[in-house]
C-alpha cells in the first residue's frame, strides 16, 4: 500500500516538511520519487512552511575564488560531504563578486557582468542577464530573492 | 496492546468520556487525554461524550483509535502541565522513550495514525508520525524510497524520467 494512494497532499507534505535542510540531497531524492511528490515539494507554500519550520537556512558551502585574473575561476566548496556538486559544474571563467542569502553574483568576460545564479543550485539553474560593460571600477551586488 | 493508565495530572475527579470507533467499539477515557485532540476538545468542552452518549468517530477504526488513545493517555499529564515546565528530565526522557517505541510499528498502522492524527488534530502525534516517515526516507535513493514506502514498480515513463533526472542531478548522490 503506497502512501501516495491513501494520503492527501497535505499529509504527504507533513512528512516531507520534516526532511532536514541540512541534507539537501534528501529533498532532491524525494522530489524524484514521483510526479506528485515533486509537485508538492515545488509548491512555494511548501517552501515557506519548510523555511518556517527549520528557521535559518543552513550553510551548504561557500564559493572560493581560485583566480581573480582572466580566466577567472571560482569553485563551490561544500560543507556537508553528502552534498557535493562536481567542481566542473560551476561555470568556467566566472568570478564571484557578491553572495547574499543563497544567491551569488558572478562576473564573466564572455557575456559582460551580471550573470546571476544560485549557489545552492548553481549547476541546476543559472540566470544570465547582460549589463553595460563596467567602467574603471565596477561594483556589483547580489540581489536577494524575496 | 493495553494502554497504560495515568494516575494523576487532573484537577479533581477525572471526568470520563466515551469515544465510538467506526466499527462501533466504545472506548472510555479521561476527558483530559481525549482533549489532546483539538477536534474532540470542543465537543468535550460543550459537555459531549459523557454519560451514555459517546462521541462517534466514523473515520477512525478501533485498532487505530486504541493506538491514538495510548499516545493521548501517556501525553495527557505533560500537556495538562502546559508543556510541563516542572517536568523532570526523567519524565521527559521517559516520554521520549515511549515515543520512539510507539512509532516502531507496521507501515500501514503508521499511515492510519497519520490520517487519524490529522482528522483529530493531535499536533504532537502528527509531528511524531511525520518525523518517523521522514526518518524512513532519509539517506535513501528515489528507488529505495519507493520500495520502502511500498510504491508499485515505476512505469516505463516514470523510470525514464527518473533516469533523466539522475543524469542531471547525479552529483547530489555521489
UniProtKB/TrEMBL annotation, chain A:
Question: What is this protein's gene name?
Answer: ga11123
Record organism? Eleusine coracana subsp. coracana
Q: List the residue ranges of the region (Disordered).
A: 110-146
Q: Where is the composition biased (Low complexity)?
A: 136-146
The record, for InterPro entries, names: F-box-like_dom_sf, F-box_dom
Q: Which residues form a coiled coil?
A: none
Domain F-box, by residue range, is 6-48
Q: Which domain of life is it from?
A: Eukaryota
Q: Provide the protein name.
A: F-box domain-containing protein
From TrEMBL, chain B:
Q: In which pathway does it act?
A: Protein modification; protein ubiquitination
Using the record's annotation, list all stretches that form the SKP1 component dimerisation domain: 124-163
According to its UniProt entry, the protein's GO biological process terms are: jasmonic acid mediated signaling pathway; protein ubiquitination; ubiquitin-dependent protein catabolic process
Tell me which residues make up the SKP1 component POZ domain: 16-75
Q: Which UniProt keywords apply?
A: Ubl conjugation pathway
What's one Pfam family the UniProt record gives for this protein?
Skp1
InterPro entries documented for this protein:
SKP1, SKP1-like, SKP1-like_dim_sf, SKP1/BTB/POZ_sf, Skp1_comp_dimer, Skp1_comp_POZ
Does Zinc-finger show up as a keyword for this record? no
Main role?
Involved in ubiquitination and subsequent proteasomal degradation of target proteins. Together with CUL1, RBX1 and a F-box protein, it forms a SCF E3 ubiquitin ligase complex. The functional specificity of this complex depends on the type of F-box protein. In the SCF complex, it serves as an adapter that links the F-box protein to CUL1.
Q: How does it assemble?
A: Part of a SCF (SKP1-cullin-F-box) protein ligase complex.
Cited PANTHER family: SKP1
Family membership:
Belongs to the SKP1 family.
Q: What is this protein called?
A: SKP1-like protein
Source organism (scientific name): Eleusine coracana subsp. coracana
Q: Which gene encodes it?
A: ga14711
Amino acid at each position: 500500500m503506497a502512501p501516495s494512494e491513501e494520503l492527501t497532499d497535505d499529509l504527504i507534505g507533513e512528512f516531507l516538511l520534516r526532511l532536514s535542510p541540512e541534507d539537501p540531497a534528501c529533498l532532491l531524492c524525494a522530489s524524484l520519487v514521483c510526479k506528485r511528490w515533486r509537485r508538492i515539494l515545488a509548491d512555494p507554500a511548501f517552501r515557506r512552511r519548510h523555511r518556517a519550520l527549520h528557521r535559518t537556512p543552513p550553510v551548504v558551502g561557500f564559493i572560493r575564488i581560485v583566480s581573480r585574473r582572466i580566466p577567472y575561476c571560482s569553485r563551490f566548496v561544500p560543507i556537508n560531504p553528502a552534498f557535493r556538486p562536481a567542481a566542473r559544474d560551476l561555470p568556467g571563467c566566472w568570478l564571484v563578486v557578491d553572495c547574499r542569502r543563497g544567491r551569488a553574483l558572478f562576473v564573466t568576460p564572455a557575456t559582460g557582468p551580471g550573470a546571476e545564479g544560485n549557489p545552492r543550485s548553481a549547476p541546476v539553474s543559472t540566470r544570465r542577464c547582460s549589463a553595460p560593460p563596467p567602467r574603471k571600477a565596477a561594483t556589483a551586488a547580489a540581489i536577494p530573492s524575496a | 496492546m493495553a494502554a497504560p493508565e495515568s494516575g494523576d495530572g487532573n484537577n479533581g475527579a477525572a471526568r470520563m468520556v466515551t469515544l465510538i470507533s467506526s466499527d462501533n467499539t466504545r472506548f472510555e477515557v479521561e476527558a483530559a487525554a481525549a482533549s489532546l485532540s483539538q477536534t474532540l476538545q470542543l465537543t468535550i468542552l460543550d459537555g459531549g461524550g459523557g454519560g451514555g452518549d459517546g462521541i462517534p468517530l466514523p473515520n477512525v477504526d478501533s485498532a487505530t483509535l486504541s493506538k491514538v488513545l495510548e499516545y493521548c493517555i501517556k501525553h495527557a499529564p505533560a500537556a495538562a502541565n502546559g508543556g510541563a515546565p516542572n517536568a523532570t528530565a526523567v519524565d521527559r526522557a521517559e516520554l521520549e522513550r515511549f515515543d520512539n517505541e510507539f512509532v516502531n510499528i507496521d507501515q500501514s498502522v503508521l499511515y492510519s495514525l497519520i490520517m487519524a492524527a490529522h482528522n483529530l488534530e493531535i499536533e504532537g502525534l502528527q509531528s511524531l508520525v511525520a518525523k518517523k516517515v521522514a526518518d524512513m526516507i532519509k539517506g535513501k535513493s528515489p528507488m529505495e524510497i519507493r520500495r520502502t514506502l511500498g510504491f508499485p514498480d515505476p512505469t516505463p515513463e516514470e523510470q525514464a524520467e527518473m533516469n533523466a533526472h539522475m543524469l542531471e542531478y547525479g552529483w547530489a548522490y555521489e
